[in-house]
Structure formats: structure tokens, C-alpha cells
Amino acid sequence: MVSGLGILRIAVVVTIGSSLIYLASVGTPRQWYDRLSERFLYGVPWGSLVTVLGVVGFYLFAQSGLSHWGSPVVLAFRGWSYLYPEGLLAAGFAHASPDHLLGNMIGTVVLAPIVEYAWSHYPPPRATETTDYEYPPPGHTQPETTQPTANGWRSNPWIRALLIFPVAVIVVSIVTSVLAVGWSIGFSGTVFAFGGFAVIYFPITTILAMVGFTGTGVIVRTLQEPVLRATAESGTPGPPSWFGVNVQAHLLGFLIGVLLALALLAHRNERREPVRIFAATLVFGLTRQLWSLAISGGEGVFIQQRAIGLIFVFILSILISGILAASEQPLTAQLATLSRIPNRRTTAYLWLGSVAVVAGFLWFQLVQLGIDPVGGGLFVVSLAVLTLPAVPVAVPDRIVATPISHRQVLIFALAAVALIAALPSFASNAPEMNEDPLAGEESLTVGDYQITYAEDIPHGRIDGNESGLIVVSERRGAWTTVTDKSQLARQGETSTVVGGVGWRDTVEATRTGWELYEGDSAYVVDLEHDGTVRRSFTSEAVTADLLLANHTIAVVPGSEEFSLRATRDGETVGTAPIPGRNETAEIGNIRFSTQLDGTSRSVYAHQNGTRLLIATREE
Q1: 3-state secondary structure of 514
Q2: What is the pLDDT of residue 137?
Q3: How far apart are CA 401 and CA 395, in angstroms?
Q4: Number of other CB atoms surrounding residue 151 within 10 Å
Q5: N or C, where is the chain less crowded by C-beta within 10 Å?
Q6: Which of 160, 154, 63 is nearest to 117 (CA)?
């Protein structure tokens, strides 16, 4: 029997289908098909289809999503380190959850066909003069202003659709994962590359696609959950959702897409209207949140630099549209008319000299602070990026043709922005790990993974301390807190999936404790795998802020059970296990009982008619 939600899903599908039938009845489907067939084999974006099937297939089979849709293997497919190439190669195609996968696939379905339409399954002719025209469909007479495309395997429509386009997608995915900061995972860098390419090649279509992006997401979420119910309860402690978005990887992907589109326009000798490019870039940057620059402001504080991010998006829009508006006239031809401005080569040498002075000063300062400037590679890479602007100008003309045009200068500036955005990845992907990554903590070993619960131990890869359920794999360069201390305290139990291609295992973590009425807790954390339970963590004893017959009472966690300890004048009077429900225990002349208060078990102390609440079981 179909449920109420099932009926709603069917109604949504029928409504959408009816709308499409209506659209076809009032439109001209044959013309739409002919238009798509101008650049697609049989009107189908085969490359985009192959891309979606490949990414979804990776989730289903490599990440075991087919058998565990909601809990795929994730840790093995992050780009943890440059010494873990498997992760770097796979990170661009793997996903952390079904929602993560669906979000990126919606973006791919909307944007990838636009890019593939620009690329075309049929090799377009190249204009002999710069033009705004769109090349005709196959079989049509080519205008005289074009040169025929050379025949060869690269002109084969099936190769262009099923080989060249997917291979380009694979390359972009790997590049974005290698240069992404923060041990990233996901196809979103490539989705943003699709967006960057589409913004340049078909700006108005891309603006409309942003509406389609949002609309498609609404349809998918509605089919998943036709009726949304929410309560006023607070969520699990943790950072806001925007803090977990890797804007750096998104920006890198976007810039890569823009540069590829500019290269294709130059190769085909085509141009675009700068005003449209500015509008499309701005709309894309605002709607896809390229302005969301997030940083940590200390423990429990998260900062979103909205103003700086918004300014950056506007400047980026000006820079990208400026490339399309810039002329091909040599920059030095105008500089030569200004007698006060040094010639191009002198300017380049002055720039290189300034960089050398600044680099020497920074080197000296880092050495004085005891920091190895070459250790993480960030200093060297930064120096290389800063010297790049002068290199094409400073080298002899026989090596690099000069003078440089206005457009080339702006393109180089855009490439420099991409390189600067990629710089932090060299530090985060540095392979160093502490010699004792778990600081001597007792751990459970599953394959090449070590799992433990610890509090306030040094992070094995970066500065700072961590508390929570920690997973480490030295072979993969992985060190991560999968569930932090506050989350486990609230949930009481959690699980983590470890594994790789072809295998997976699950480790359960359970926190058990007793909470004093003042709020402090004594607790233990047990790890379970394949029926084996290991106590991973035992907290310190906590003492209740009360005095009963001149005794203080403490809850003491142990390796097997919780105990109560009575102390008088600084000396231990005795200990006893916490009694079971409706049972009692005694220490001296104090009797303890465990009673059910509602749904919680509470321990009370009794002495001469006085009863005091000591602790309540964590639920």
C-alpha cells in the first residue's frame, strides 16, 4: 500500500511530467532537438552523462555506497598528503554523504552540458578574423571568414564526446583536489570549473542556469522529503554549516574553468561582450557563495568575512570582464610614451630586486624565530609566485616574445590569483606527521587505521590540541577527529567507518557516565569492533560539591565499573561500586541507593534521615 508521502512524491513527478508535456505541446520540440544536434551527437550530452555515471559509480562501488548508501567509506578517499597519491587522485571524485553527492550531481547536470555544448562533438571552424558568431551546425555551408578544421582522431565526434571531454573533467578534478586546502573531498571543484567555463562562453545562459540550479535542488529535496518537519530543539554542538564549505577549492575550480574558456575563445578567435561577462561572473559568485570567506576566531568562534569576500567577488568580476574588454595592443607601446616610466626590462629588474630584498628580510626573521623557511615548502612556492610577473618581461625576446599586450597582462594577473589561492594547499598537504601521532594513547587497530578516544592531545599534523574520537592512518597521512568531545557527550554513542577500495569496517564508540547535579561528569569511552570491546578512555573522578556528615562524595570511573568514594578530612574512608537499580551500598555509616527518576537513574546518599542527590546517569 502506498503511503501518504509516496502519494505526494508521485504527485510531484506527475506534475513535472505534465508540465514538460505542456511545454512540448506549445513549443517546437523538433527545433529544440535540431538545435542540440548542432553540437551534440543525437542531441545528447554524452560526455556529461559519462561524467555523472562515473562519479555516482565511484560512490556506489569504490566507496561502498551501494550497500551502505548513507555511510560511505570516506577517510581513505581524502587528499591527506602528497605522500598519499591514492587520496589525491580519488578526492575529486569521492563524496562524504548522499547529500554531498546529490548537490554536486545537480550542479553537474545543470552546468556540464553547457560546457560540453561549447566544446561540441563536432569540431568547429576557426575564424580568420575575430568574431562573435556561433559556428553553424554540421553539414551547413561555412562562412568565408572561417578556416575548415583539420581532419583526424580529434575531429571524431565520438572521441570528442566520450574521450576528450571526460578526460578533461578527470584532469581538472585531480588538479583541484591536489591544490585544494584542508584535506578536501568532493567533485565541487570541478562543478565550479564548469561554472567558470560557462560564465565566459555563454554568460546569459549561465545566469539562467543559476536559476535552474536552485530549482533542480528544490525538486530533488522535495522528492526526498515531501513534508519537512522541524522542532525548536538545538542541534548538535559544532561549527556553522558555512564553515565547512571549502571556498578555496571552489575558487580554484572556478578560475581554472575561466582560464580554459579564455584559451578556447582565443584558439577559435572568438570574443564575448564584457558587460555580459561581468554580470554572469557577479551572479555566479554571489549565488554560489564565492564571497563566503571563513576563518577560525579561536576556540568555539567562527568568523565569516562577508565584506572582504563581497569586495573580492566584485574585483574578480571586473578583472575577468576586463580581459574580454582589453585590447591586443602592446602595453610597452603606451609606456614608451611616458618618459617618466622606466622601460619594461628595467621595471622587471626593479621588481625582482624588491622581491629579493623582501625575501631576504623574511628569511632572516623566520630563522630568528627558529622556523625552517624551506621546511613546509610554502616560503619557496610563495617566492616563485612573486617572481613570476617579471620573468616573461626580464628574459630575452628570443625566449619569450614581447612586448606583452594589455590582455596578456590581465590574463597573467588572473593566473596569479589562481596560484596565490593554491598556495595554502602546499602547507596543508605537507607530509609531516608526529613520530607518535597519538601521543601514547591506547588505540584500537583496524587495518592500517588506529582509532582512539582522547582529550587534549596534540594534533598529529597541525598545531593545536584535539579532543574526541580520533582516527589515524600513518600510511595515508590521515589524522582527524571524526566526532569531537561535545558531540559524543550529547549523543552518547557514535560510529566511524574505515576502509578502502573493496573493504570497510565500522567501529562503535560509546560514552557511559554519571553527571553530578553541578554539571561535572565522570565517564568512560568504550570502542567496539567485531564483538570486541576495549575501554579507550577513563576520565578523572569528580567530587560532588556537598558535605554529608563531614564526608565528601566522589564518583570514580574504573576499568570495569563506576564506584563511589567517601573522603573525610582528606583521607579516604572507603569505596563501593555504584549500586544497581533499587539496590544499596554502604561506606561507613553512609548508605547509597540507585533509584529511577522518570527515565533516568540517580544515585542518592542517605545518613540519619538526610537524603542528597549525588549523580544522575548520562542518557
Answers
A1: strand
A2: 36
A3: 9
A4: 9
A5: N
A6: 160
